[in-house]
Design a protein that fits this description.
By secondary structure, this protein is mainly alpha-helical. Helices cover 68% and strands 0% of the residues.
């Protein structure tokens, strides 16, 4: 497996996530409408954005952990059982910390 390609993939996804999270934060910081019905609708949208932001934050943490594993040489080794993580799994899910059996 080409580690440079894997690292570039992780870094590109990380950059996209950070950009998305900044857009979400900006949208959540927008002033609320004064109309009660519009405000209720806006709040529902904010709840969706908050959930999306949490999911992206979780993915960002997994990517950062994978980048640290690349640095310390443990990338591609299952963090649970110590066996190698299949190359196909790492290509599909570059931030994977576990083999398919342990996941």
């Amino acid at each position: 497996m080409d580690m440079k390609v894997q690292k570039d993939t992780l870094l590109a996804r990380r950059k996209a996530l950070v950009g998305d999270m900044q857009e979400i934060e900006h949208a959540l910081d927008a002033p609320m409408p004064t109309d009660w019905e519009d405000r209720a609708s806006e709040r529902q949208g904010d709840e969706v954005l908050e959930a999306l932001g949490q999911a992206e934050l979780s993915e960002l943490k997994r990517i950062d952990a994978a980048l640290r594993r690349m640095e310390d040489g443990s990338y591609g080794t299952c963090q649970t059982c110590g066996r190698p993580v299949a190359e196909a799994r790492l290509i599909a899910v570059p931030e994977a910390a576990q083999c398919i059996s342990c996941a």
